[in-house]
Inverse folding.
């Protein structure tokens, strides 16, 4: 029997039936995964190396703006990529996203100041905003929802792998003085170039989708007004801790943000179907509740995970690289839950039960992490974050799948971009909220622990011995403690690295104080997880379609 040519050559586009073979899907998937790996790895690599970069460019106080610039552009362009790809097709925009990301990486390599680096990271963000959402939208185009969960598990596996590899790669590269005559930290960006070129080549070679062109206005005004609303809110989320949440600058950002969001809703109303997020989509209960749950899950996920490496580094004394490895149980939990839920969703066609299980597991994990102290063993702590990973793995994939399934296939880009956009906004707000809680509790908690420790003869002896220490960091803290200077407790707000230089007895109150502040983060996470669970319980489950997005669109006439 003659072999199907589509099996022998992944570059051959499918015929009129718009059905892709498993081999073709895997070939396309390889390019999509490379693109997603590019952006996911970059985030964790840069985060690990940022302190070294800031020191080299003499801009320690400016490093938050480098993160903010990337976050703003990546978030803003996500809905634009979704809408434009629905109108003109996915492939050109996915390839453009890779090119922009690689271009930004090359420019970042040669940055001479933190201001230049912030601008170049913003260019990277223009590419990153398309890499995540378009990859998931393309899978939505070529794989039926009922089967999609099996393949989307690969994306979460890549995301998890990058979260472990990132700190290792970032630590190794930034720790080198020079590599081939180029400063080690510059390779943090340069390493993206070969990965990006490989992704570009694979996508160009294997991604062949039916041509798409839907005559429609482009919602440029919506994009502009969205920027007016979202940019100040993202800026204050990143900078509000330093400015003060009630400072004039923060209040100005709130006011501009609210006006911008109201203006965006008005523009979307007048743009109707051409809007970035057509308002009538939100009359669909599954879609509307889905994006709200995505917002809450983003806040829980990014908020919960952001503070875990800080606990490992400050309390357990782990290096950034080691802390990356110690996060592996959370990554394994996400990967395991996403793979198992994907297989079961494919078999049963039911997805809501997994989001229920996920929300319950996240709430349980947050309660367990609330019980953590400085003396909690690493195996126990890793078990707790494994449970957290299991919960997140059961939430992330079914949510994206349900939101994609709630809207017509022709709007796959918009639905996927909505899931990504609202999860990212939720994550940004969550990180701002939970880091604010952590740092608000930190100084009082350390102060209380130091007062309690001062009653101990052993601690007083350690302070006296520390004043004579040859280590300037230990001697300085010991002298501050001996004189009753409150700056000792406040020092941890600026730089926690000194804790690892202290005698174990001197370090104990600082570690206990940080652990106290750490566990205070998790009761609000329990509340958000329960709120997510309540919304999931009233969320209507729509049967999953059995045809791919392309097939459904062609049967509907485009």
């Amino acid at each position: 029997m003659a072999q199907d040519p589509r099996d022998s050559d992944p570059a051959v586009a499918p015929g009129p039936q718009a059905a892709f073979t498993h081999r073709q899907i895997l070939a396309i998937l390889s390019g999509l995964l490379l693109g997603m790996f590019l952006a996911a790895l970059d985030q964790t690599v840069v985060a690990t190396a940022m302190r070294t970069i800031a020191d080299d460019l003499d801009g320690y106080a400016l490093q938050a703006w480098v993160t903010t610039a990337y976050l703003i552009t990546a978030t803003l362009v996500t809905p634009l990529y979704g809408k434009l790809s629905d109108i003109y097709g996915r492939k050109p925009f996915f390839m453009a996203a890779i090119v922009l990301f690689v271009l930004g990486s090359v420019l970042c390599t040669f940055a001479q100041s933190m201001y230049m680096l912030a601008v170049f990271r913003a260019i990277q963000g223009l590419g990153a905003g398309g890499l995540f959402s378009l990859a998931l939208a393309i899978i939505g185009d070529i794989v039926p929802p009922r089967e999609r969960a099996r393949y989307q598990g690969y994306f979460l596996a890549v995301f998890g792998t990058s979260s472990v590899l990132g700190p290792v790669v970032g630590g190794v590269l930034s720790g080198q003085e020079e590599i081939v005559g180029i400063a080690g930290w510059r390779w943090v960006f340069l390493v993206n170039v070969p990965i990006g070129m490989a992704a570009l080549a694979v996508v160009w070679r294997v991604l062949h989708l039916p041509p798409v062109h839907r005559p429609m206005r482009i919602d440029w005004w919506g994009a502009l007004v969205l920027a007016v609303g979202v940019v100040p809110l993202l800026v204050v989320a990143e900078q509000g801790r330093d400015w003060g949440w009630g400072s004039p600058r923060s209040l100005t950002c709130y006011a501009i943000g609210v006006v911008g969001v109201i203006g965006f809703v008005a523009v979307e109303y007048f743009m109707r179907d051409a809007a970035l997020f057509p308002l009538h989509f939100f009359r669909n209960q599954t879609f509307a509740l889905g994006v709200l749950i995505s917002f809450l899950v983003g806040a829980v996920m990014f908020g919960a995970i952001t503070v875990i490496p800080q606990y490992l580094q400050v309390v357990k004394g782990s290096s950034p690289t080691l802390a990356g490895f110690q996060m592996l149980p959370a990554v394994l939990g996400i990967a395991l839950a996403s793979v198992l839920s994907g297989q079961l969703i494919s078999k049963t066609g039911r997805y809501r039960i997994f989001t229920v299980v996920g929300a319950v597991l996240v709430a349980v994990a947050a309660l367990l992490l609330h019980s953590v102290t400085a003396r909690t063993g690493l195996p126990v702590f890793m078990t707790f974050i494994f449970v957290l990973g299991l919960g997140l793995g059961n939430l992330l994939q079914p949510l994206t799948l349900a939101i994609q399934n709630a809207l017509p296939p022709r709007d796959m880009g918009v639905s996927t971009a909505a899931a990504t956009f609202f999860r990212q906004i939720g994550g940004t707000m969550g990180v701002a909220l939970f880091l604010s809680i952590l740092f608000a509790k930190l100084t009082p908690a350390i102060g209380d622990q130091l007062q309690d420790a001062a009653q101990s003869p052993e601690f007083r002896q350690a302070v006296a011995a520390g004043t004579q220490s040859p280590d300037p960091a230990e001697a300085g803290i010991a002298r501050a403690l001996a004189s009753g200077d409150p700056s000792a407790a406040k020092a941890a707000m600026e730089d926690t690295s000194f804790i690892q230089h202290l005698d174990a007895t001197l370090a104990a109150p600082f570690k206990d104080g940080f652990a106290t502040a750490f566990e205070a983060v998790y009761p609000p996470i329990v509340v958000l997880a329960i709120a997510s669970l309540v919304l999931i319980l009233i969320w209507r489950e729509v049967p999953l379609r059995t045809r791919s997005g392309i097939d459904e669109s062609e049967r509907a006439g485009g």
In short: The longest strand covers residues 178-179. Strands lie at 178-179, 182-183. The two ends are 34 Å apart (CA to CA). The first helix runs from residue 5 to 8.
